[in-house]
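Retry 2 of 3 after timeout on previous attempt. Resubmitting structure tokens to design endpoint.
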């Protein structure tokens, strides 16, 4: 029996929960969880905000742990290997998307916390291809948030060919944005951070931002008109999107990873005349996750985290709801 923390219905507190995972598939690994990050997506799933949560619900998709057992078809992982597991736990491995390396776009992909139980537990299973070994030099205690928040902002840097010579912007210096600033700085870019919080100005600069601008002041974007090659938005609230599109250079891109629920009012002419683009992306493939781990280890990039014991999951969720976390929360197993 796996021991976990589950909510019985939307918004209810987490309670100890046990379940039988059944027989392990030949292509799976079983992982002893050592820590698990908390993502805002866990909160959305807890509240069934996306209409696909099944209860009892065990969240957790920023999992760090140690392989304890491998299925008969697994040849590349061994017990004792420290690995990370993110949003996806399985892909079909034969569709066009999987065959070209876009496992994160597989229509038959399985989410770790969608229709099954996640990492707020002592153990978890996944398809072995989605268990990514941690490289030497990456702090396992802090690495969990890289598996969702980190890869969400790293993936578009790779997918859309952001160059070291680019001038880039990051909207929102929170759980995702603070990692985007670090990645883009080490990528070689000139980074402008957009934040509505004056209290984050110094922190953003310390993380690698070269400039900080008030994200809710369209006038502050005026001097940036036509200058930014790539702007990534990590916020889930509507802003004056026209002003950000106006800040894009020719061929510039406004890229959305924050789940803004309201439609984006985008004028076609502002895109057409300067060949600008608006796009979005989810988390990355296993290969991109491995690349992100290597890049983070090489450059000393790590999420800024607060630690809670796994048994304190309800206190940790209250911290998340309050918006006071700086900047990601990690639950430590065995506490």
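Retry 2 succeeded. Sequence:
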């Amino acid at each position: 029996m796996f021991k976990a923390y589950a909510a019985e219905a939307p918004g209810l507190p987490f309670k100890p929960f046990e379940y039988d995972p059944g027989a392990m598939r030949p292509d799976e690994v079983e992982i002893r969880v050592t820590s698990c990050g908390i993502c805002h997506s866990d909160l959305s799933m807890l509240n069934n905000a996306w209409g696909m949560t099944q209860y009892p619900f065990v969240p957790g998709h920023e999992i760090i742990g140690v392989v304890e057992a491998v299925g008969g078809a697994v040849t590349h992982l061994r017990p004792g290997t420290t690995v990370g597991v993110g949003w996806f736990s399985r892909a079909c491995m034969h569709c066009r998307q999987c065959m070209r390396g876009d496992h994160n776009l597989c229509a038959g992909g399985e989410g770790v916390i969608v229709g099954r139980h996640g990492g707020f537990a002592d153990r978890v299973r996944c398809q072995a291809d989605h268990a990514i070994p941690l490289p030497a030099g990456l702090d396992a205690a802090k690495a969990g948030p890289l598996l969702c928040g980190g890869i969400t902002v790293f993936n578009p840097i790779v997918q859309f060919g952001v160059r070291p010579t680019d001038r880039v912007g990051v909207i929102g210096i929170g759980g995702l944005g603070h990692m985007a600033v670090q990645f883009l700085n080490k990528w070689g870019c000139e980074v402008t951070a957009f934040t509505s919080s004056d209290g984050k100005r110094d922190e953003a600069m310390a993380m690698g931002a070269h400039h900080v601008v008030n994200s809710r002041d369209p006038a502050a974007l005026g001097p940036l008109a036509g200058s930014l090659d790539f702007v990534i938005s990590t916020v889930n609230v509507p802003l004056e999107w026209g002003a950000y599109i106006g800040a894009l250079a020719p061929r510039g891109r406004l890229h959305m990873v924050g789940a803004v629920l309201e439609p984006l009012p985008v004028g076609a002419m502002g895109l057409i005349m300067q060949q600008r683009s608006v796009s979005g992306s989810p988390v990355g493939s296993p290969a991109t996750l491995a690349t992100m781990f290597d890049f983070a280890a090489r450059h000393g990039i790590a999420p800024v985290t607060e630690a809670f014991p796994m048994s304190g999951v309800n206190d940790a969720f209250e911290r998340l709801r309050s918006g006071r976390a700086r900047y990601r929360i990690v639950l430590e197993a065995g506490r």
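Attempt log closed. The longest strand covers residues 28-38.
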